[in-house]
Design brief:
Blueprint lengths: L3 E2 L9 E6 L2 E6 L2 H8 L6 H4 L6 E3 L4 E2 L2 H8 L4 H11 L1 E3 L2 H22 E2 L9 H11 L9 H12 L6 E2 L1 E8 L4 H11 L1 E7 L5 E8 L3 H12 L4 E4 L2
Parallel strand pairs: 1-6
Antiparallel strand pairs: 2-3, 2-6, 4-5, 7-8, 9-11, 9-12, 10-11
Helix pairs in contact: 8-9
Length: 237
């Protein structure tokens, strides 16, 4: 992510901002849409702007003159100037918005570790609270502008000295009776990757799945709610 500022200045508005020829040009924006627009997504600039105005100082409500926009951008069209401000300038985000991004990413990463990783000593997933405590102890810093996936490996390096973690996949063979196959089918497809499946002569469903070890028990628990314990399973590897 480029052109996103998160400095120590107290920002009260989410802004698109550029300084050209010694002058400031600012637009007030929807932060989510502004980031997407700057990343090249095809979004109508009208949806990005909170108001169709160009400011010299948005916080003070000082508007830019058409003369000044013409001098600098060769256009007094607010929408065209706003596009240039966002494409060539930076997006300044409020502390509250940045903190919201951090909390969302932190939750995503912790949930990922809980569901997809196990304690190598026990083969069981770590409780979410244990993962959260490891984050706190390691003083993990979440980058609000990187995807959860892109920063996962770096975070794992930070918390592994505190929390033993192993990512592994289980291959399981499951057989579901005919009367429960319909409901069970959707549960399996939602939680696991199907490697092989067969519908048997008696109407039962036989399936081999691959699933993160951390959610193996969740799969069994949800299936047993449907089949009431009438479930055959075998861990293949």
């Amino acid at each position: 992510m480029v052109g996103i500022t998160h400095d120590h200045e107290k920002i009260h508005l989410n802004l698109g901002r550029i300084k050209k020829e010694g002058e400031n040009f600012e637009v007030v924006v929807d932060p989510d849409l502004a980031i997407k627009f700057k990343d090249g997504e095809d979004i109508d600039i009208r949806e990005v702007l909170k108001s169709e105005e160009v400011f010299s100082d948005a916080k003070k409500g000082l508007l830019c003159s058409e003369t000044k926009m013409n001098e600098v951008f060769d256009s007094a069209d607010v929408l065209e100037v706003a596009k240039l401000i966002l494409k060539e300038g930076e997006v300044q985000l409020t502390a509250e918005y940045r903190q919201g991004l951090i909390e969302v990413k932190r939750k995503q990463i912790i949930e990922n570790i809980h569901k997809n990783a196990v304690n190598p000593s026990t083969g069981l997933p770590h409780p979410i609270t244990r993962v959260e405590n490891a984050f706190d102890e390691a003083k993990v810093r979440i980058d609000e502008f990187k995807s959860a996936k892109d920063q996962l490996q770096d975070i794992l390096k930070q918390i592994r000295p505190i929390l033993p973690i192993s990512f592994e996949l289980k291959e399981i063979e499951i057989k579901i009776p005919a009367e429960h196959a319909g409901k069970a089918n959707s549960i399996v497809r939602n939680l696991a990757s199907i490697k092989n499946e067969n519908w048997l002569n008696d109407g039962s469903w036989s399936v081999v799945v691959e699933i993160p070890a951390g959610i193996q028990q969740e799969l069994f628990d949800r299936l047993n709610e449907v089949v009431h314990g009438n479930l055959e399973s075998k861990i293949l590897k």
